[in-house]
Amino acid sequence: MSMQQTLPLPGVAPERTGGYRTDHLLVADMVRPGSRVLDVGCGDGELLQLLESRGIDGRGIELSREGVNGCVAKGLAVVQGDADTDLVNYPDDAFDYVILSQTLQATRQPKVVLENLLRIGQRAIVSFPNFGFWKMRLQLLIGGHMPRTENLPASWYDTANIHFCTIKDFVELCERINVKMERAVALDLYGRPVPLNLPWWVWNMFGEQGVFLLSRGGKAK
Amino acid sequence: MSNVRPIPSPPMSSDDRAHEADHPSSLVAKFGMDQPLKLDCGVDLAPFQIAYQTYGQLNADRSNAILICHALTGDQHVNNTHPVTGKPGWWDTIVGAGKPIDPEQYFIICSNVIGGCMGSTGPASLNPATGKVWGLDFPIITIPDMVRAQAMLIDRLGIATLFCVVGGSMGGMQVLQWTAAYPERVFSTLAIACSTRHSAQNIAFHELGRQAVMADPDWRGGRYVDEDTHPHRGLAVARMAAHITYLSDAALHRKFGRRMQDRELPTFSFDADFQVESYLRYQGSSFVERFDANSYLYLTRAMDYFDIAADHNGALANAFAGIKTRFCVVSFTSDWLFPTSESRALVHALNASSARVSFAEIETDRGHDAFLLDVPEFLEISRAFLQAAGKARGLKDDGQS
Fold first, then answer.
1. Over 50: is that where the pLDDT of B360 sits?
2. How many CB atoms lie within 10 A of CB B360?
3. Are B275 and B256 within 8 A, CB to CB?
């Protein structure tokens, strides 16, 4: 959840549309106007600024001091904190949406974090790098070593990303903890939606990252 | 032992300070017998007065007022030459033209706390019932009492809602008390290097200071003014001990190390061989020029009693339930008097209340005193927070709405 890990695409400059990052616009479009949003791992606050420009009441949590101070200097309501330890301090139903952008794989307990997101928020928007992306598979299959890509350049021994998963893994976790997937989008290297009208299991091969809009399911299994 | 120089007596007479206690070199709001200050200890204090300073102009909508709450040994002279010491205002790092709290933009108010010694009624003031200085006959005051008195001043100034309440340390406690007691009257707050309750360690340091004052034979059971003495040695020792808590090991090492004061070799005596000793003695002796010993006892006590959660059924979140105020909480990495963990506890409570809160920890080795110093990152965050809050409040850059 340091700023480096929070920026979805540390290696490749993300595509921008009208000054905003395309992947942020996609997330922002999932949020109903006038709602309350908590952005967990908000980094430099760019997404929060976009949300606030749309009249959304946004709050942020960020681990890195530089990230927090930069956000506060932008006038954003951001506190220093850790997704693994600090989400428990938020009451149930405090927000309409809780966003976890490119951070799930860096948490110690992704399942607990995900459960907390949907306890604090009515809905959660979660994005993460897809370890099932064909380039990743190829590196492991042919090269025989842990994959490194433009956007995930760290070696296995110094990466903060300790819980990688594939889109398929994530979908299975959601089913397991009875989380409803309302929308799922795969993004390419530049944060653009993959222009394929295909089910998510195909995206598991071709999506660099997955973005999911989640809500609480019915009774827990 | 031949070369011991005790803490010197203050170079100036204490008359200037004594005069300020009743006749401050600032504005004064007087409250008569019909407007008592209802103190937590059960006493109705009347008459009483509040000494205050203002800077800048109140706009037509009365929406640009910032109340600054001073720390333990501060006063209302935030941004002007001090009438007793002749030194610049105590917070001119953050207040002034072009600074984050700019009089061109905001109407800035700072009042001496009740119990203080710079013109607001306190133990150094004359007790109208006896014609003598109050001394220990003055009732015990609390942080909520200070804020209640400030609220009466703000009423007197005709201001319904403060744009921001700002303060560090004991000032930060008042900021939090303002939001807990008058949430609808506070649009935003900047609470710096403070806590929602005074820790055991901090109470212990305060007790040390109080005992130093009381152990001075010149204290005379608090009646030193009547007996024409002043416990300047005890008060100086109290200040020296407290001053250490405002700094950090790293800051002391950087500033002084083990360097000698005006000599190359130790004198094999108890003289101030080390620069750090000389510095502390100077801090002690310059403090007693401007501060009343009994006032020091009362104000440290007020901080000790502070515990917002205890006043709200033990749960901090209750104090801020449903609050609309915008909070900015700031702590400093090297502050061990009000460590970041205290600010974090406050932030958790504010989150639980769904308050709009920003929280930044500033990296510095300058200890608790960092809030009074030129720490650019802190000043930048303060400026940005106030600007964003001003925008939400509908203030323009010139303070007009």
1. yes
2. 26
3. yes
CB-side exposure of B132: number of CA atoms within 13 Å? 13
Distances (CA, A) of A19 to A22, A49, A149, A160, A187: 9, 12, 26, 29, 18
Mean pLDDT, residues A160-181 taken together: 91
The CA distances from residue B379 to B130, B236, B311, in Å, are 47, 31, 32
Chain A interface, mutation test: which of B318, B323, B330, B354, most A Cβ atoms within 10 Å?
B354
**Residue written as tokens 């009074």?**
B372
Is B169 annotated in the active site?
yes
B22-199+307-393 domain in CATH 3.30.360.10?
no
The model's confidence at residue A149, banded by pLDDT at 50, 70 and 90, is: confident
For residues B109 and A119, give the distance between their C-alpha atoms in angstroms, rounded to a whole number: 43
In angstroms, the CA A6 to CA A68 distance is 12
**Is B371 in contact with B91 (CB distance < 8 Å)?**
no
The tokens describing B248, both together, are: 């950090």
| Bridge partner list, B50 | B29
- The yes-or-no verdict on residue A6 having pLDDT over 90 is no
Chain B residue at shortest CA distance from A60: B358
User: What are the E-state strand segments in chain A?
Assistant: 16-17, 20-21, 36-40, 57-62, 77-80, 95-101, 121-129, 179-187, 209-216
> Rounded mean pLDDT of chain B?
93
Q: Is residue A178 part of a domain?
A: yes
Write the CATH number for A165: 3.40.50.150
Chain A interface, best mutation among B326, B358, B362, B377, by max A CB count within 10 A: B358
B243 as an active site residue: the answer is no
pLDDT at A4 over 50: no
3-state secondary structure of B264: coil
Contact A75 B359 (CB under 8 A): no
Confidence of residue A66 (pLDDT cuts 50, 70, 90): confident
Candidate from B359, B381, B387 with C-beta closest to A79: B359
What is the DSSP code string of A93-135? T-EEEEEEES-GGGSS-HHHHHHHHHHHEEEEEEEEEBTTSHH
- Looking at the structure of chain A, the number of domains it has is 1
Q: Are B148 and B335 in contact (CB under 8 A)?
A: no
Binary contact (A77, B347; C-beta < 8 A): no
Query: CB-based burial of residue B113 (10 Å sphere; 0-12 exposed, 13-18 middle, 19+ buried)?
Result: buried
A11 found inside a domain: yes
A221 domain-assigned: no
Residue A54 falls within a domain, yes or no?
Answer: yes
Q: Which domain holds residue A22?
A: 3-216
Q: How far is A200 from chain B (nearest CA, A)?
A: 35
Which of A75, A79, A81 is nearest residue B384 as measured by Cβ atoms?
A75
Indicate yes or no: CB of A69 within 8 angstroms of CB of B362: yes
- CB-nearest partner of B328 from A57, A59, A72: A72
A58 bridge partner residues: A37
